[in-house]
Amino acid sequence: MSGRMTLPSGAAGARILGIGSSQPNTIVTNDDLAERVETSDEWIRDRVGIAERRIADADTTVVDMAVEAGGRALKDAGLTPSDIDTVIVATCTMPSPIPNAAAQTADRIGISAPGAFDLNAACAGFSYALGTASDLVRAGSARHALVIGAEKLSDWLDWQDRSTCIIFADGAGAAVVGAAGSDDRIGIGPVAWGSAGDLNQMIRIRTENNALFQEGQAVFRWATTKIAPVALRAIELAGLTPADIDVLIPHQANLRIVDSIAKRLRSKGAREDMRVADDIVHSGNTSSASIPLALDHMRAEGRVCSGDTLLLVGFGAGLSYASQVVVCP
């Protein structure tokens, strides 16, 4: 008879130890876009809430932004590259599927021989990756995981299509995930996730021009009716109530969608003073990068503090969605 296998000893739970982000320097305003397509600052603000967005230059890659955001998250966590054994990059905008972004990002940061893989759940990608990293730490499969959402959506846009070119932008956000240490230090709740594959054609890449397409009104109706219940499920799985949430950080898809989700949560008991991320106004929709970008920006502005209870909600192409409660590091 062969020997009995053993499993590694995991942690009681996981928590975020540090965060960081990166954005291109070039700011594209609504007036800039109005010179290229039939639109206006008023039209864009009214429909999606965006005033400006960051667009990377031709030489900047998804990996470049991931490296910068990941390095800042490591520094914020007080860790070194040698402390990281797993790297997950959530992205849907690599120029080719091979090689993946994660291994390249890890190598450039100086992380030696980690488990490294990309995860594509589009705009829900960061929440998917964070849930995966948390479970790896709890299972004992990882000690410290670097989770990055990074996108260069500008490479996948038809710049003559005003329904998409006004919305999407570039950037990266990252978090370091490690063991909670004890039950009272748990900082990442269970993930509530799912998909609606029957609606996959609502957001897709058109094969004829390799450009992003979305059925805007259909996506808006889906997000404003189906996503709040996912967020409420995440709160329930964490053993909390809506009144326990200090800050709501949904995917920055559209300011009207963000406001709708917040309104629905308040109707279920969330506090009126619950702070709500509105990073889309100045960053645009950066897909998997939008949640960590918003978190990092809110913390820099003093709108989020260490110890705050945050509700993260990602949703987008797939259609995929995911939500979890986390504690701000």
TrEMBL record:
Residue stretches making up the Beta-ketoacyl-[acyl-carrier-protein] synthase III N-terminal domain: 117-197
InterPro entries, A to Z: ACP_syn_III_C (IPR013747), ACP_syn_III_N (IPR013751), FabH (IPR004655), Thiolase-like (IPR016039)
Recorded catalytic activity of this chain's protein: malonyl-[ACP] + acetyl-CoA + H(+) = 3-oxobutanoyl-[ACP] + CO2 + CoA
Active site, UniProt feature: C123, H251, N285
The keyword S-adenosyl-L-methionine appears for this protein: no
Location in or out of the cell: Cytoplasm
Pathway the protein contributes to: Lipid metabolism; fatty acid biosynthesis
Gene Ontology MF: a single term: beta-ketoacyl-acyl-carrier-protein synthase III activity
GO CC terms in record: cytoplasm
Enzyme class: transferase
Domain of life per record: Bacteria
Sequence intervals crossing the membrane: none
Region ACP-binding, residue ranges: 252-256
Gene Ontology BP terms: fatty acid biosynthetic process; secondary metabolite biosynthetic process
Segments forming domain Beta-ketoacyl-[acyl-carrier-protein] synthase III C-terminal: 236-326
Keywords carried by this UniProt record: Acyltransferase, Cytoplasm, Fatty acid biosynthesis, Fatty acid metabolism, Lipid biosynthesis, Lipid metabolism, Multifunctional enzyme, Transferase
Pfam families, A to Z: ACP_syn_III, ACP_syn_III_C
Record has Cytoplasm as a keyword: yes
Main location per the UniProt record: cytoplasm
E.C. number(s) listed in UniProt: 2.3.1.180
Function as written in the Swiss-Prot or TrEMBL entry: Catalyzes the condensation reaction of fatty acid synthesis by the addition to an acyl acceptor of two carbons from malonyl-ACP. Catalyzes the first condensation reaction which initiates fatty acid synthesis and may therefore play a role in governing the total rate of fatty acid production. Possesses both acetoacetyl-ACP synthase and acetyl transacylase activities. Its substrate specificity determines the biosynthesis of branched-chain and/or straight-chain of fatty acids.
Record-stated family: Belongs to the thiolase-like superfamily. FabH family.
Subunit structure, interactors included: Homodimer.
Protein name listed in UniProt: Beta-ketoacyl-[acyl-carrier-protein] synthase III
